[in-house]
Amino acid sequence: MIHIFSIHSPITFLIAYTIIRKLGLKKEDVILLSSGYEVPFGDFRVEPAFHKISNSIFRKIIDFNAPKAHDRYIDVLTGNQPFIAYIDLMSYYLKVLVTHSKCISFNFIEEGNSTYQSYDDMTDLTWSERKTNYRIKGFFDGNLFKIIIRALRGYNLRLLSIPYNYMAFVNFKNIKFFCFSQNAFFNIPSDKRVILKPEANKEIQDMALGLSLINDCIWIDCSNGMFTDIPETYYHRAIDKAIGLLPYEIVEKKLIYVKLRNKNNIANNYLCTSLKNAGFTVEILSNSIILEALFIVSKNCYVIANLSSALEYAYCFGHKAYSIYSLFDVKKSSIFDRMDGFWSNIRSLNG
Predict the structure, then answer these.
(1) Greatest CA separation found in the chain?
(2) Helix (H) or strand (E) holding 195
(3) CB under 8 Å to 109, separation ≥6 — which residues?
(4) For the whole model, what pTM was predicted?
(5) Lesser CB count within 10 Å: N end or C end of the chain?
């Protein structure tokens, strides 16, 4: 039996890796469909997701009927064998994957923030489509044009109507929801949730780039403006307040490990500059490190961030997790307001 995992990030790879070990799957029976994520091991079979190889104008013409072209691609990868799929969200290409004639079943794996929402609302389904202006310019720039193209390319109404959110599939027979935390897949019955506990083995240590911390502080630099639309200046002020409220153990040690957002430059990074001005030594964690793996191999650390699912992973792997969001002068509604279980584990630096 072939097992296909959809991965696009460190956390989706880490949970795929843990599932493979838990189920005792042979690596030759596993295919990792990557949406651009570079897998840190060389002995897994990693193949590009279909939309990554069919993204040029030429390929879109050749693969004009996208679902059929996708089916042919999967047939080649699997050698026409039946398979089980492991997906995070029911995106367009994953809808095609799980409706493939040889897909005998599928399961969900956690992927981060969306996994921790305690409830859903209409914005999760409609997003910004209702706001699109379909005048001439809006037609070519907006969603209506995309919808028409998708219909022409084979995404029929029945395929498109498959629900996006995992909650819609809770009553499917034999489906499982794999996750690391009790707070993930909040509304899924316990008999369908599989809580995974990764071992701190050599491969996990490799994901952490050989680093293991004890009683240290890890600060994740992330304003999360994409979820809140709050200007960076408010994030900077929250950082300054947070530095003055750090626990005594951190202040005494004077060493903080910082995980920067990808491609951020330490020379002009506000968090690093502020910490150095406050007398701290700053160690920058490599962009290649998988933070969740670092949490697994480390002990009793302090993990600080703004709004990030990494805080939940820090907590469930045995660390103290702190959010600085309570220190923002301005707050706006976001999906994090709907993460009840998440907030029960996260401390605020202001007490």
Answers:
(1) 63
(2) strand 193-195
(3) 5, 12, 15, 16, 19, 86, 87, 88, 177, 178, 179
(4) 0.85
(5) C
